[in-house]
């Protein structure tokens, strides 16, 4: 037998990718204590805390408007399943946390969807879970977004108005495709 055949089976590791954005990140440098260059291993029984107090939080945000401990992420295995998940808990008494439009007050917690947007104050964090099999630890990989993660999606797109000011009678929302009309036909 070769050493390849005798080698331990390689486990894949669950990785939580977190992409951070704040409109003042260029000037205020609130992310200066975060390591965006490499993956970091976190023991499965540790709680990953995010906040301003670097003695209590694994991930420090250098901003006086952030709570000492803003929120935590806990890795766990679902009951009667081999599936792993994360739960997010709001630990701020002053600031509500939203996870994909679900608002969490102080000490409220929910399961983290496999892809979601976490918001508090002006902070936006895109969280994406890459599944794995390892049970003793998970990894975090932090990224920095150049543009806002959350965009306004509820605004209707403006309809073009012809030069004569009369709107066409058809609506694009009714499933009809736009057609060109010669200005002499109006």
Question: What does this protein structure show overall?
Answer:
- Residues 49-121 form the FHA domain.
- This is TRAF-interacting protein with FHA domain-containing protein A.
- One of its GO terms (biological process) is innate immune response.
- With 186 residues, this protein is mainly beta.
- The protein contains 2 helices and 12 strands, in the order H-E-H-E-E-E-E-E-E-E-E-E-E-E.
- It has helices at 3-6, 25-28, and strands at 15-21, 39-43, 47-51, 59-60, 71-77, 84-90, 97-99, 102-104, 109-111, 115-120, 123-130, 137-144.
- The chain has a 7-stranded mixed beta sheet with strand order 2-12-1-11-10-7-8, with no helix packed on it. It has a 5-stranded mixed beta sheet with strand order 4-3-5-6-9, with no helix packed on it.
- The model is unreliable at 152-159 and 167-177 (pLDDT under 50).
What is the tally of beta strands?
12
Question: Which segments are poorly predicted (pLDDT under 50) over 5 or more consecutive residues?
Answer: 152-159, 167-177
| CATH fold call | Tumour Suppressor Smad4
Order of adjacent strands in the largest pleated sheet? 2-12-1-11-10-7-8
- How far is the first residue's CA from the last residue's CA? 83 Å
Specify the CATH class.
Mainly Beta
The overall average pLDDT, rounded, is 83
Family: Belongs to the TIFA family.
Organism: Prunella himalayana
Pfam family, one: FHA
GO biological process, one term: innate immune response
